[in-house]
Design brief:
9 helices
Length: about 260
């Protein structure tokens, strides 16, 4: 959104041309960034702990019914992100699947804050869907199910969002602090997920988790984990981590490295 900007990507022909990639692309709304730039310092989260900034860089100023206001890490400008503007940015990017703006609270948030955030997220998702339907552009919008590790809130979120005409379901929000807690959330949700819609899991992508979550009906996942390792010279090979690049990545592989 800030650099290089959705408008620049649009002028370049969209993400597919920008990346020279002809497979489906999913973009997120900025909801996780609200969480990651929060001034609160939550306990350890499975999706990653938050770094508390010592200055005003990338600081969230307010989260209100209209949307979110934060400070750009690049130039200090105040940026306003609403459900509608998030949809417009993702349409400019040209993704195949787009995600409505949501609020991700840490798992230790009070019950009152969790319920308030859940209902506001539902209102934001409904606004996002209405904006998307005005000009679908052959894009799909997935609902994001929230509720943290609270089964009642998860079921409430699933029932409400499945009543709206979304094209798929994404499981978002806090999944706890351990893989055991994540699997408990998914085990509860699995039999309640609509069988006629694709199911996406947000923010999880390590090999061990992938192997476990597909058993709960997860069709697709996204995570910065593989690219983060790649930046540090590590690649996944047959569910392992490898840093020896003197030989082919896989025996018999002719791919250049």
């Amino acid at each position: 959104m800030l650099h290089p900007g959705a408008d620049v990507v649009k002028q370049a022909g969209g993400l597919h041309r920008w990346m020279n990639y002809d497979q489906p692309i999913i973009t997120d709304s900025g909801g996780f960034q609200i969480f990651s730039m929060s001034n609160t310092l939550p306990q350890k989260e499975l999706k990653g702990s938050v770094v508390k900034y010592s200055d005003d860089r990338a600081k969230v100023l307010s989260v209100k019914e209209e949307g979110v206001t934060f400070i750009s890490y690049r130039d200090g400008k105040h940026i306003h992100l609403t459900p509608e503007s998030s949809v417009h940015a993702q349409k400019d990017l040209g993704a195949d699947i787009i995600i409505p703006l949501d609020i991700l609270l840490p798992q230790h948030a009070t019950p009152k804050k969790r319920i308030e955030a859940l209902h506001r997220t539902h209102r934001w998702e409904a606004r996002s869907l209405r904006e998307h339907i005005k000009n679908p552009k052959n894009q799909a919008m997935y609902a994001v199910i929230h509720g943290g590790t609270d089964e009642q809130l998860r079921e409430l979120s699933l029932k409400y969002l499945c009543s709206l005409p979304f094209s798929g379901i994404a499981i978002g929000g806090s999944l706890g602090s351990t893989k055991t807690e994540m699997n408990q959330v998914l085990s509860f949700m699995s039999p309640r997920l609509p069988p006629n819609l694709p199911i996406h899991l947000l923010g999880i992508g390590d090999p061990e988790s992938i192997d476990s979550v597909v058993r709960f009906g997860i069709d697709t996942l996204d995570s910065a984990f593989p690219t983060r390792l790649g930046r540090h010279g590590t690649i996944f090979v047959e569910s392992e981590y490898k840093r020896d690049f003197d030989k082919p990545l896989v025996p018999g592989c002719t791919c250049p490295m």
